[in-house]
């Protein structure tokens, strides 16, 4: 018999956690949550258990697509005028960029409403890896070593990430005992609720409460109060993640579901809708991606993002107007034979009232989990938030979400920070259906490169008919001709970075069109690290880009 489940994640321990759940009868949600929680332990440089965890999933039993935002909001005490007066236009590194941590609420909501397992069950691998440690691998070692000065700024952060006063070395065992204690606190709260006669949902609610209103919350808010932070007890107690609508785009016969305008999901949708309208002929040149055309599409999408996209409750246009055929046609009509160094945004007709620098090559603080199970359920999540730019809360092992880096400290700016407002999130997982049947889960790290990388993989799959492995491993490019999502939000007109194995004729052709090209400074931080799971009539496939330490497996449900 053919395998019927597929998993791709950013680390083998996370992939193993998902495999164990699926082999013991759990569904894709159970498996995906287990993998996601594990990533917060074994990729602590890139992912935080107290970070962000946007989720998009497909329920086979009722053919419903669900999106959970998994991103926190600015605390009530946040004030943009004060931030600008004290720190300028950008939110500084440290406690002040902390927003309410969303990941625990996101994982537990997915489990409670769409899963079947307990918190203790899905956090087993994470707890073991935190308590007993995991072997330091090159990606982790390089990340910490390259940011050692930043990790050294805060004693509680340095104590974990610079053990013995230096970065962890490849092959050493890296332990996080305080993080293990935090996970155990949630597990114990769940066990106490079950011992008192509660059911699975009661146990999950108790685990959640331990984080948001119990001892973990108190440690977080006490530290903020003592050190000039913004988080207060009522911020955590009143918080919950939100279920949000998705945008479904028909792309080459597949129905691709993207997240909303609270993240880059709407930009992913605009990119695919523009490419679909242009047709496969416009996207290809001599049987390969026409990179000039693709880059010009992407530059226009990101110009529109900067002009229009923020937490939808604060937008001045309806997000869906960016997907209208008339608007997309006008954007395509503006593309010429030469590179436009910095395209201007366009304004959709329908609207509503709503409430020189260091060159950054993308954001490395993210991972991904893609799962499809034997019943056809799909789970896709892109958990994130780094540890180098904030202060670990002593005694918890938690780098609480520093996603405030994506907001501006500029009064009146579309993405200005405000109490209760979500930063415009870069992580944006997607999923796809074909002929109404489950087909794909996909996502990637990469910050502003995420949309660009996923678009290239989808074109490789659906236009160029590459195998999944070839589609993921094919060299990619990325534009930086727009304000970056992360402070200091630099703009690099005409700039394109390319992976070093891009054939020279592509480089020559783009240069002739006027693009300013440069290779990625290091192969490790290339254009994303795609994790994709696919389900076809012939069986299932999973691919995780091995250049980012990802692993993928398929198997058969017992």
Uncertain spans: 351-363
The helix count comes to 20
Major sheet: 7 strands, antiparallel
Beta-strand residue percentage: 5-15%
Output the strand order for the largest sheet.
6-3-2-12-11-1-20
Mean pLDDT over the full residue set:
94
Q: Decide which structural class fits the backbone.
A: alpha+beta
Question: Could you list some keywords that capture this structure?
Answer:
558 residues, alpha+beta, globular
How would you explain this protein's 3D organization?
- The N and C termini lie close together (11 Å).
- A hairpin with a 2-residue loop joins strand 7 (247-251) and strand 8.
- The protein has helices at 12-23, 28-42, 80-87, 103-114, 119-122, 124-132, 138-146, 148-151, 155-161, 177-195, 200-212, 215-226, 233-237, 265-278, 280-283, 291-308, 325-333, 450-462, 468-473, 504-512, and strands spanning 5-9, 55-59, 64-68, 134-135, 173-174, 243-244, 247-251, 254-258, 284-285, 288-289, 369-372, 378-381, 430-434, 437-443, 477-479, 495-498, 516-519, 531-536, 539-544, 551-555.
- With 558 residues, the chain is an alpha+beta fold.
- Residues 351-363 have low confidence and may be disordered.
- It has 20 helices and 20 strands.
- It has a 7-stranded antiparallel β-sheet with strand order 6-3-2-12-11-1-20, covered by helices on one side. Strands 7-8-13-14-18-19 form a 6-stranded antiparallel β-sheet. The chain has a 3-stranded mixed β-sheet with strand order 15-16-17, covered by helices on one side.
